[in-house]
Design brief:
Layout: E1 2-5, E2 18-22, H1 24-35, E3 41-46, H2 49-61, E4 66-71, E5 81-82, H3 90-99, E6 104-107, H4 110-114, H5 117-123, E7 128-129, H6 137-140, H7 142-152, E8 159-162, H8 165-175, E9 179-183, E10 192-195, H9 198-209, E11 221-225, E12 230-238, E13 243-245, E14 250-251, E15 254-256, E16 260-263, E17 268-271, H10 278-298, E18 305-314, E19 317-324, H11 331-335, H12 343-351, E20 367-374, E21 400-404, E22 407-409, E23 415-417, E24 421-429, H13 432-445, H14 459-467
Parallel strand pairs: 3-4, 3-6, 4-5, 6-7
Antiparallel strand pairs: 1-2, 8-11, 9-10, 9-11, 12-13, 12-18, 14-17, 15-16, 17-20, 18-19, 20-24, 21-24, 22-23
Helix pairs in contact: 7-10, 8-9
Length: 468
């Protein structure tokens, strides 16, 4: 069932009555009668803050689109119809897309991409945005990504890939600290541990390889030199040959303010980043992205979709610390509110196998800061089911956006926590300092038991602003 807004007075402004609970085929028939066209049908796979943001952006571009979220969360229900399917239920998702004549599927999380959802959908003639299983190995295996970087001459940290724990321990002791231990497989953004001492590094390797703290993801590890600099995320949308950068952003991985403590999936992000000027982005494109795409083509693994470049800027030079095969979370929450051109058009071109030559993105000159509200105990154990109070006044402020991640509606319809990262609160401003103040204001106003957030998102940029 859906509610469909009909322009009953025929003046084209969309201010007609909302028709509740009309069966989809009937609703489409009415829409065709009223507008002469069928609303576009889009499926977004995933349930986090990234997926809510993608749905928010697609709805902003196509208000009449019928969007489905599989499975979605407590916030996506306002914009999309929830589908009770998990991202890993690939065949069932393809069946759903086929039965609903979905025109475009957008995949949020990395796991279904690594498991081949694009191959399954494409094999059934269904249009889907994202890389194939072979291409998604860039994120699915850090060991593979390092091999591609070596062949392509891409700048990255010195490293060794290891599968035997005792050999790994010997290498760590030979190499010394600080050093980085990475689970080669998918570990929900938590598989990289920066170790300041040799003993900590040995313990991290033992946890991954022997104790299986990340399951099979840690069977193979990449032991990497610790680069010292400033992190930067640049996401490129690519057809496999051409690549268009989104505005650079900076994620904050550690749980604690000042970037201390355990790594998380991301406690916040901001954009733009002043160190990422046009010259630096050009260097990333020329020395990292284009050689990587060329090497992937040479390996018969054409990469179409989003290539996420996680970088460390060392003395002004960019080095790759990781590649991802999908939109970042929470970077997406900071990037898309600044987008002033169509994301949907690019999604469709890539899904249809068309060229992106001559395409670019336009962005607002404003700034965005996303602060993640987390459950007490995250990234370790945490409780669920805590009632969330989001003041209605936040919705009235055009410079605040509340994006849901780990939320759901309980049996009484109340919004409750359902994950470690619960909400992403975006503040907009004329600069990062102003946007951060807006984000903190909203983060403070929202209430739930055990709420935790970092109050320093964007602190490096704010310090730069204060010095300029």
């Amino acid at each position: 069932m859906i509610g469909l807004c009909l322009d009953d007075d025929g003046d084209g402004d969309g201010d007609g009555d909302v028709v509740e609970a009309i069966p989809i085929p009937i609703a489409i028939a009415i829409a065709v009668t009223k507008t002469g066209s069928i609303p576009m049908r889009i499926l977004v796979v995933g349930s986090g803050g990234r997926e809510h943001t993608l749905i928010w952006q697609l709805k902003r571009e196509q208000p009449d689109a019928q969007i489905y979220a599989a499975p979605g969360n407590g916030g996506t229900k306002a914009l999309a119809e929830s589908v009770p399917l998990k991202p890993g239920e690939i065949e069932e998702l393809a069946d759903f897309a086929d039965s609903r004549e979905i025109e475009l599927t957008v995949v949020g999380p990395e796991a279904p991409l690594a498991d081949g959802i694009v191959d399954v959908f494409s094999g059934r003639g269904l249009k889907i945005f994202g890389p194939s299983k072979a291409a998604a190995e860039l994120e699915g295996s850090k060991a593979f990504a390092k091999t591609i970087m070596e062949k392509a001459g891409v700048p990255t940290a010195g490293h060794r890939t290891l599968t035997d724990y005792e050999e790994t321990e010997r290498y760590i002791r030979e190499r010394g600290a600080p050093i980085v231990i990475k689970a080669s497989g998918l570990a929900a953004g938590k598989g990289a541990i920066v170790c300041q001492t040799v003993d900590d590094a040995v313990a991290a390797a033992h946890s991954m390889m022997v104790d299986k703290s990340f399951g099979d993801a840690g069977t193979t590890v990449v032991v990497e030199d610790c680069l010292v600099g400033e992190e930067l995320s640049i996401l490129y949308l690519t057809d496999g040959e051409h690549a268009i950068p989104l505005i650079p952003s900076q994620d904050h991985k550690p749980i604690g303010e000042g970037d201390i403590g355990l790594n998380t999936g991301g406690m916040g992000a901001y954009a733009p980043v002043s160190i990422a000027d046009d010259a630096l982005v050009g260097r990333v494109s020329d020395t990292i992205v284009m050689p990587t795409l060329a090497q992937m083509r040479a390996e018969d693994r054409i990469f179409r979709g989003v290539l996420y470049c996680g970088l460390m800027i060392v003395d002004g030079d960019p080095y790759v610390i990781e590649f991802n095969c999908r939109f970042g979370d929470p970077e997406t929450q900071a990037i898309l509110p600044l987008l002033d051109s169509s994301l949907l058009d690019v999604f469709q071109k890539v899904a249809r196998g068309e060229s992106l030559a001559g395409t670019d993105f336009r962005f607002s000159r404003r700034a965005a800061v996303c602060t993640v509200l987390a459950s007490k105990g995250y990234p370790g154990r945490y409780e669920k089911g805590k009632v969330i109070d989001v003041p209605e006044s936040l919705a009235d402020d055009p410079d605040m956006i509340v994006l849901h991640a780990g939320t759901r509606r309980d049996t009484e319809g109340k919004l409750v926590t359902d994950g470690g990262r619960v909400l992403g609160v975006v503040g907009l401003g004329d600069d990062v300092s102003g946007a951060a103040a807006k984000s903190r204001e909203a983060a403070t106003a929202i209430k739930f038991s055990g709420k935790y957030f970092r109050g320093d998102i964007g602190y490096r940029e704010i310090e730069r602003q204060s010095r300029s």
